[in-house]
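ok, trying the design again with the full structure, not the truncated one.
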């Protein structure tokens, strides 16, 4: 990632100068507003906030977060613009995350303003009646049922039913010879919510399910293709908590799973879908929620611009720019050349589903977007480090940049270039209000 720094350093300095100039004008016009009236300015834009590294570091709030949200609510405690929180976390329900955010920010947040990495699974109705194996941590069975799955098996249930399959930890091995317990239904799909606690157990049992086609009483069939459908949420290789350096995320777990599967079978692991940032699925869902909020508030102007605020080049910025590219090319996507351009940019047909499939699923569930642009805003309070060492030859280094995105997303320098760089989320809100000439009253 260091090879990208020179390109963004200039943007960072420029944005900071602009932010300082704007602070005097914007700061005096933002904050709490009067009572709602017909003459009040209505927004034509919506905000997408990342959480970790933008609003919090682990459990600690970032000071600028509360300041930012004081500018986003009026005197009645209502938001002056539609907004959603888009996180790649997947270890809790949306309502739980909404409650946490309400406590941190001091403003009421509803679950309809929160998108977890697993939220788009609601659209995959063809899997909701199948028996699915889920991996992750937290209340995974409750989460799965909350997004629509009716027949769910967890890794723990699978391990208890087949105790001889989990053998890495000697202390957890059966003390006496044992046979499979219970009569579990055949697993028909695998859903990965987020990084689990015992990686060795999860990796072993997921590979077992894939290589036995869901029948764990049988032996591995390494030549059988294709394997069971696999849906994964949250591709973050790393994320920012209280530690000085980023921590492993679910993307690291996926790297392990993909490489183990390929080492055993000689074939690439295939995904039915990848969700969470930077997947377009997540941004479609976010745009739908933004549009729904505007309708509920009876704002008449269509929401034509989205601003995505994040701290990670490879997820927040890549995802916002990828969705912006989709919005730019949506009308032309039936053109084979346009589709080929999208696939070439991402390197993945998984990342860019077939047009007919996309339209059928997204239009039936969410309707087509009203937004025509999605602009990216990078903050310096999380994963991104504006003080990283500058390479001597930037043009050479950018071609050799280590890509921290998922295997199925190709590195494209244009997709990791932020539209704006600011110090923190409060500066981001100031900048956006200025860009939109929006003056809360």
């Amino acid at each position: 990632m260091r090879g990208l720094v020179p390109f963004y350093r200039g943007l960072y300095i420029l944005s900071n100068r602009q932010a300082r100039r704007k602070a005097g004008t914007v700061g005096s016009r933002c904050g709490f507003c009067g009572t709602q009236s017909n003459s009040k300015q209505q927004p034509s834009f919506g905000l997408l906030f990342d959480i970790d590294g933008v609003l919090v570091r682990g459990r600690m709030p970032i000071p600028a977060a509360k300041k930012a949200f004081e500018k986003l609510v009026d005197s009645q405690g209502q938001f002056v613009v539609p907004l959603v929180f888009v996180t790649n976390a997947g270890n809790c329900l949306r309502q739980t995350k909404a409650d946490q955010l309400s406590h941190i920010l001091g403003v009421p947040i509803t679950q309809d303003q929160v998108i977890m990495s697993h939220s788009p699974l609601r659209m995959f109705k063809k899997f909701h009646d199948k028996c699915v194996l889920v991996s992750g941590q937290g209340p995974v069975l409750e989460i799965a049922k909350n997004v629509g799955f009716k027949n769910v098996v967890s890794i723990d249930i699978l391990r208890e039913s087949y105790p001889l399959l989990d053998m890495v930890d000697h202390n957890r091995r059966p003390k006496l010879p044992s046979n499979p317990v219970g009569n579990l239904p055949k697993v028909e799909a695998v859903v990965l919510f987020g990084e689990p606690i015992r990686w060795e157990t999860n990796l072993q049992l997921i590979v077992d399910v894939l290589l036995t086609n869901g029948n764990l009483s049988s032996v591995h069939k390494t030549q059988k293709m294709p394997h069971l459908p696999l849906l994964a949420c949250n591709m973050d290789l790393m994320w920012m908590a209280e530690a000085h350096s980023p921590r492993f995320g679910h993307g690291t777990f996926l790297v392990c799973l993909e490489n183990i599967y390929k080492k055993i079978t000689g074939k690439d692991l295939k995904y039915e879908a990848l969700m969470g940032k930077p997947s377009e699925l997540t941004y479609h869902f976010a745009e739908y929620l933004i549009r729904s909020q505007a309708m509920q508030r009876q704002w008449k102007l269509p929401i034509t611009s989205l601003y995505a605020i994040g701290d990670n080049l490879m997820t927040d910025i890549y995802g916002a720019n990828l969705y912006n590219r989709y919005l730019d090319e949506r009308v032309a996507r039936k053109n084979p050349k346009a589709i080929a351009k999208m696939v070439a940019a991402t390197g993945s047909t998984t990342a860019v589903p077939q047009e007919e499939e996309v339209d059928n699923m997204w239009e039936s569930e969410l309707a087509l977007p009203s937004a025509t642009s999605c602009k990216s805003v990078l903050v310096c309070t999380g994963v991104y480090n504006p003080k990283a060492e500058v390479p001597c030859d930037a043009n050479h280094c950018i071609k050799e940049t280590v890509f921290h995105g998922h295997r199925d997303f190709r590195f494209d320098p244009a997709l990791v270039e932020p539209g704006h760089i600011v110090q923190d989320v409060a500066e981001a809100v100031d900048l956006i209000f200025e860009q939109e000439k929006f003056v809360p009253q």
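Keeping the full-length input from now on. The mean pLDDT is 83.
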